[in-house]
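In keeping with the milestone schedule agreed at the kick-off meeting, the structural modelling team has produced records for the first pair of proteins. Each record is given below as a sequence line and a structure-token line. The laboratory manager (R.T.) confirmed that both were archived under the project's standard naming scheme.
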Amino acid sequence: MLKPAAFACFLLLMASGPASAHPPITLTPQGEQAVIEEIEDFRKRLAAAIVAKDVGFLRKAYADSFSHTHTSSKADGKDNRIVSALAGDFVIENSPATEVRIRSHAGGWAAVATGITPTPVQPDGKVYAVHWTVTYARNQDQWQIVASHATRGREIVK
């Protein structure tokens, strides 16, 4: 059983826990824009690394815990995603996209990009609007992709 003084200290510590936590960081509009520009630049460098087959850059670009969910619900980890990208498989990371929107989160330590990419789907060969989401996290001084997801939308008729 705790003595009254120890119990009072315990209650004080418990009550001050959330209050003493770091307050959320709010970025200025300029800070938000800087994060967006960093992600845009990272996306360009990632696409170039895929074309150049720069395995070193790709291994740093994807977090070890990376996970991608395909339109088929198949899930890939970091190694499978890099192999697919290097093999020339269709990946959203280096495909043309429209309606790309990037949002900063966690005071600039995380970002989410969404977009739509016209994607040929096998075996029917039709082209579909694939809606995707990519989540980025800042790991020390560099960005990494931590997760991505693709959902097949409507058929694009030409």
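The second protein of the pair:
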Amino acid sequence: MIYAAMLRGINVGGHHKIPMADLRREFTTLGFTNVTTLLNSGNVIFNTSSDSADKIEIKIEKRLQNVFGFSVPVILRDADEIQNIIKLDPFKKIKLTKDIRLYVSFLKHKPTKKIKAAAYFRRRIIQNN
């Protein structure tokens, strides 16, 4: 299975620095294959035979804590989840200009309370489709 791991809080403002070569090495040490990092972002794409995202997140977080000495929260999404976002094309009605920046945010856990902003944007996306 292909996963994207988004590591939170590394290489920001000179704090919690992890060179991407070291990050790739640690993911490989964990048994993951086809490990690729994206720029200096802390985003990692990799393959694994495991299909338990929760267990993989914990495994990565523990390894990075032990090796680098600080906590690194990990948000994991499989390739199908990423493809579904692309298929939704949530920004298709937005006119792109050089000043526009579009972002997709991922939450680590499903919210326990309804988030008003999320409901607002979900309505707008549905209305625009």
